[in-house]
Design a protein that fits this description.
By secondary structure, the chain is mainly α. It is built from 8 helices and no strands.
């Protein structure tokens, strides 16, 4: 399943990069990277709202004793989400507190030079962990399998359709031809949904794990 999920992600990135460059939505590779990080930020914002609601509904729908079991397990997924937000917020906090901005004179004093090197070293150390964490969090849907094996495909499907609706309302890709826009707008949610349904089917057929079984319904 992981190989299929990674393959779907790679194909999606290649396709979206081609569209952004081919139709002039991004001028260069840096613009493509900025676009993808903007999409990740949108996903994280949607997830921050959706995660507690979806997990609360899932736990509330379960019958005892599974309800108590899921409540004990919810700490790990919540911790993974919190850790990623903290990692992404650190650079923003550094600049937001006023210590550093685009007009900072790094040569004004020896202390400023030392601060520059300290911040640079810290951000270089943090960057690979943050990037790896983003990739793993999106693939594993923030360790929600620790709650139950059926939660990641369900939550991934919900998230991708929410992000798609957000893109539609904000007019994403409006400057590309209609057919291409429809293909790229629906490509992500349909492919994610297909992989998620396949994962649920494999869980049911190979391991006897179902959503109804998790909820004791």
């Amino acid at each position: 399943m992981k190989r299929v999920q990674v393959l779907r992600t790679v194909v999606g990135l290649v396709a979206i990069t081609w569209m952004l460059l081919s139709y002039g939505l991004a001028s260069d590779t840096d613009a493509v990277v900025d676009d993808r990080f903007a999409q990740i930020r949108t996903t994280l914002i949607v997830l921050a709202v959706t995660f507690p609601v979806a997990v609360a509904i899932f736990i509330a729908a379960a019958r005892p004793p599974n309800r108590r079991l899921f409540l004990r397990r919810v700490g790990k997924p919540a911790g993974a989400l919190l850790a990623l937000f903290v990692a992404l917020a650190v650079p923003r906090l550094i600049t937001g507190l006023g210590y550093v901005d685009e007009n900072t004179d790094w040569t004004a004093s020896a202390g400023r030079v030392a601060l520059l090197f300290a911040l640079g070293a810290f951000l270089l150390w943090l960057a690979p962990f943050a990037l790896y964490g983003i990739a793993q969090s999106l693939v594993h849907v923030f360790r929600t399998a620790d709650l139950h094996e059926t939660v990641p495909p369900l939550l991934a499907t919900l998230l991708v359709w929410e992000v798609t609706l957000f893109d539609v309302f904000r007019g994403a890709y409006d400057s590309v031809p209609f057919g291409v826009r429809v293909a790229f707008t629906l490509g992500a949610p349909l492919s994610v949904t297909a992989v998620a349904m396949w994962e649920l089917r494999r869980l049911r057929r190979r391991h006897g794990i179902t959503v109804r079984g998790a909820l004791l319904r």
